[in-house]
Amino acid sequence: MESIKFTNAHTHQASSRDAVSVVNLFPDEYPYRLIESGLYSIGLHPWHADGETDEELLAKVEQVARNEQVVAIGEVGLDRAKKGIANFQHQIEVFERQIEIAQNAKKPLVIHCVKAYSELISIRKKFPSNEVWVIHGFAANQTIANNLIGLNCVLSFGISVFNRNAKAHSTLPKIDINKILLETDETDFLPYDLYRYVAELLNININELKEIIHSNFEKFFKL
Ligand SMILES: [Zn+2]
Known about the structure:
The protein has seven helices and eight strands. The chain is an alpha/beta fold. It binds zinc ion.
């Protein structure tokens, strides 16, 4: 029997052979980076919402949202830490436009959230839906984790779990394993390294972890 593949909820690299990945595309990368049978998220990132090209890029997101290979709208969201990007109010507007696109297309969202968890929670309350929101690179505490999970969000953990002083490291073992995903994002880490580390952190067998995350992945991305 072929063993279950690793699943990678969020990466910017081309999909690797040993993992099933959701590869993130910025709107202007579509369809150039698309390969047959790949899975993608597409969205206008808060870093790129400059107020000038937004309409064109949002139209592109809307236009491809129903494509079968586009399994999520993202990454989209809020960032309070990055300098030189759109002001927070503008970020919220661009985010909310894409929430509507995702809801109309019945797709989940992949969310980038930096130092804006309380606003994210309020926005989720304003847009309740059956579509899951995948909080990528989750980096907050257990209370925020559980608040988000209670609002039909799931949490995707990446390299910050390797850092013993990071909140992600202490939060991950305390939350429901059926609400988590794993991701490599912009790093060159192999999914294997991340899974091996997380299996140890959760004190479970790596194959068991793979199976659980695989089934979460299929459920959340509606595969
Ligand atoms: Zn990313």
